[in-house]
Amino acid sequence: MPLHESGEDYLETIYLLSRKSPFVRSVDVANELGYTKASVSRAMKILREEGLITMGTDGGIKLTKNGIKRAISVYDRHTLITDFFAEYLGVNPVTAEKDACKIEHVISEETYLRLRSFMTERGYQPKEWK
Questions:
Q1: Closest by alpha carbon to 79, among 127, 8, 17, 29?
Q2: Cα dist. 88→25, 28, 30, 63, 112 in Å?
Q3: Which CATH number fits the domain 75-129, given the four candidates 1.20.120, 1.10.490, 1.10.60, 3.40.50?
Q4: Total-model pTM
Q5: pLDDT (tens digit, 9 = 90+) per residue, 43-56?
């Protein structure tokens, strides 16, 4: 089932937070995104039902194998698009980041793969690919 943009944002945020700390809680996600705890709680329920996260009795959130795969896919798109705008087009990094955050959810697989190939052919290699 396709995940909405906000669901992808939650997965990406959980992924990034889990890279900094092995214990991620709903309150951490709420603080990072600036959302209410109630909104995050609803989203976590949906992500759990979709099999993308598990939640421990201690409140810890863990991405499942599918959740990690999906989160990394979103994050790769985000990173690639941000870097393309900033490094290849000279867009202000803050603007590049904001625009990439919107585009990462709607870019087609074909366009993403061609952009990735275009950049790779020119020597681009983001930290996550190394």
A1: 127
A2: 37, 34, 33, 33, 15
A3: 1.10.60
A4: 0.85
A5: 999 999 999 999 99
